[in-house]
Amino acid sequence: MYTEKIEEFQRYFKSHSEYKVYPGHSSKVHSVGWSCDGRRLASGSFDKSVCIHVLQKDTISKEIVFKGHGGSVDQLCWHQTNPNLLSTASGDKTVRIWDTRQSKSVAVIPTKGENINITWAPNGETIAVGNKEDLVTFIDTKTNKIKTEEQYAFEVNEISWNNTSDLFFLTNGQGCIHILSYPDLELQHILNAHPGTCICIEFDPTGKYFATGSADALVSLWDINELACKKVFTRMDWPVRTISFSHDGQLLASASEDLIIDIGFTETGDKIADISVDAATFTVAWHPSQYLLAYACDDKDTYDRKRDAGTLKVWGFPSDS
Questions:
Q1: What is the count of structural domains for the chain?
Q2: What is the CATH number of the domain that holds 85?
């Protein structure tokens, strides 16, 4: 049923397997993400800065560097319908909201701990941020004030809303996914997803699936309506740190400390392509309308192996460009 589509993708990426490297930071890049219109690519780094790049055809150029955080920028996420707004979570115990039309942050929200995970509800109304002490803070984006805080008794890893913003998902250190109603945050289900720590979670743009990556080196694909596991991707050998669905939900990229980024066909798990890397990969993000994958690894400087390269990369350009 899917054989032709799989072969078509495999052929496409044979001729679109070029990657380009973009310097942006003086230290390792923790997080990358595209704006909803696909024009901008943001990266957040251990060097406390956020870098915005602009995509034009097959070239990407640096537009602006946002400074202000007093600690590492551990995760970033864009507003899902406003291409100018970006939020960042930092170890400096703040969340910042940035507008690409301005040179400084438009809001600074103090929080109780060192923040490591951030997610913006698809309806744009709320930002949730998780910290190292497993406290999840919900911020009202109209007032930029904290609405509520929830302290959990287990290790909270990545957090996310579903595409309709009425369910909130937590991945935890026991390999479970906690599904809560939103906004009342009542527990609806606990899925025993993995034997190892559940590290990352991602929703497919079409609303059919979500996927989780785990310390057991597996990626599991879940039917969002049935809450049933449909597929397990098994090509990694190391804990899966980061995953991303393509804009049409047909491809799933996953990365770890393995020296490849795996691109699989969502419905069957078949391998479409892989990207060779030289170091552990922290973050991957598909473009919102093209088959371009942004990613960042723990690369070292070519001339000084003690220094981080601070680069981000984009793969999927035509191989003859």
A1: 1
A2: 2.130.10.10
Phi, psi of 9 (to 5 degrees): -65, -45
Structure tokens at 136: 């999840």
Give the whole-angstrom CA distance, residue 276 versus residue 134.
34
- Residue 135 has a CB neighbour count (10 Å cut-off) of 17
- Write the CB contacts of 226 (distance below 8 Å, at least 6 apart in sequence): none
In a domain? residue 237: yes
The verdict on residue 212 lying in a domain is yes
In this prediction, residues 16-32 reach a mean pLDDT of: 93
Predicted confidence (pLDDT) per residue in 267-276, tens digit: 999 999 999 9
Rounded distance between C-alpha atoms, residue 214 and residue 200, angstroms: 7
Collapse the DSSP code of 248 into the 3-class scheme (helix H, G, I; strand E, B; otherwise coil) and give the result: coil
Residue 321 above 80 pLDDT? Answer: no
On whether the CB atoms of residues 141 and 124 are closer than 8 A, the answer is: yes
The dihedral built from the CA positions of residue 224, 225, 228 and 233, taken in this order, carries a sign that is negative
Cβ–Cβ < 8 Å for 277, 251? no
Residue 172 pLDDT > 90, yes or no?
Answer: yes
Residue 278 placed within a domain: no
Whole-angstrom Cα distance, residue 316 to residue 308?
24
**Buried b / exposed e across 113-132, counting CB within 10 Å, b at 16+?**
ebbbbbbbbbeeebbbbbbe
**149: confidence class by pLDDT, cuts 50, 70, 90:** very high
Q: Quick one: tokens of 255?
A: 């990365």
- The H or E element containing residue 14 is helix 3-14
Domain that holds residue 168: 25-254
